[in-house]
Amino acid sequence: MGYILSNDGFEQVIKVLGEKYRLYAPVRKKGMGRFTDVDVILYDEVHHADEIELVQKSDYSFKEFLTPLSETLFFFTESQCREAELSEKPVLIFLRSCDMHALRRLDQIYLDNGPEKDWFYLRRRNLVKFALIGCTESFENCFCVSMGSNRTEDGYEFSVEPDENGVRCTVADSSLDELFSANSLRAEQVTPSFVTENETVVQIPEEVPADILKDPLWDEYTARCINCGRCNFVCPTCTCYTMQDVFYTENGKVGERRRVGASCMVDGYTNVAGGGQYRRTNGERMRFKVLHKIVDFRKRFGYDMCVGCGRCDDVCPEYISYSNIIKKVFAYANENREVENK
Question: Which residues sit opposite 123 in a β-bridge?
Answer without folding.
Answer: none
